[in-house]
Design goal:
Elements lengths: L1 H10 L3 H12 L4 H7 L9 H38 L17 H15 L3 E2 L5 E2 L1 H4 L25 E2 L4 H10 L4 E10 L10 E11 L4 H16 L4 E9 L2 E11 L2 E11 L1 H6 L8 E8 H9 L12 H4 L3
Parallel strand pairs: 1-4
Antiparallel strand pairs: 2-3, 4-5, 5-9, 6-7, 7-8, 8-9
Helix pairs in contact: 1-4, 2-4, 5-10
This protein binds phenylalanine.
Phenylalanine binds next to strand 8 and strand 9.
Amino acid sequence: ILEEAREEIAKVSTSRELNDVRVKYLGKAGTVTSLMKRLKDLPPEERPNWGRMVNELKDEIERILEEKKAEIARLEKEELNRKLWADPTMPGTRRSLGHLHILTKVQEELEDIFISMGFSIVEGPEIEEPWYNFDALNTPEWHPARDLHDSFYINEKYLLRTHTSPVQIRTMLSRKPPLAIISPGRVYRRDYDATHLPMFTQMEGLYVDHDVTVRHLKYFLEEFARRLLGENTKVRLRPSYFPFTEPSFEVDIYFNNRWFEVLGAGMVHPNVFKNVGYDPERWRGLAFGLGIERIAMVKYGIKDIRDLIRNDVRFLENW
Ligand code: PHE
């Protein structure tokens, strides 16, 4: 019986199983207990011997059970410790932080460049009256930009501004020259393809002072292009037409072995000065306008302007 019990106990691995074995041998109906019960059926002279033997058996089984119990407790504790164990020398998990949108970064970079050249930032409403958006800017009724096909009209009195030039008008109406301002902001046009968005971001510059010439214009544009894209960047002006500037230019920037057409510019038309109450005999102005999306595309080699607004993290994570 002892050998049998020893083997069974050795096989046990949980305290529950161990308890089953204890009941089997030492319980009320257990093997050892029923041996003890046989005592009364034995002749009196054999009883002391029998009793001692059964007691020794019982003690030995109890001792083995206790031993096993201690072993199981130790194993269970080890297991628990293994589960709870943390290695303080392990590197932490990296948390990914969000960052500014590439357009915001480019806009801030442009703002920094112009602020460092003495310009200040002004903003204006995105819902405009045609007078500020067109008439004050010497853009007559017949001009195609005023057409319903090109502009978003909200009703007869208001439209979504098609450029940030009306901000220049509002600023000149409220401030006396000289002034140097840039006006970043959203503008709206009926256009949508790989190089046009119906809503995009412009930044226009205006510098009004005595004796401002095209040389100043070229200087500002070259300085801006070099700071944004590097020392080797070149700038060229080509004659063009805008109603609010005379002369007017398309401005190309040479970058990565290519010319990019990214700006419109010119000298403020005398009619614009008259419209805001500046004396065109005393004041000269230079103005330029750029699309921030276009600038970002040139600088970062982005092919499709729509990628900038798709909000695909796989794209946005690149910058
Ligand atoms: N306002 C013009 C546009 O939106 C850009 C421009 C600004 C051109 C200033 C010349 C001078 O196209």
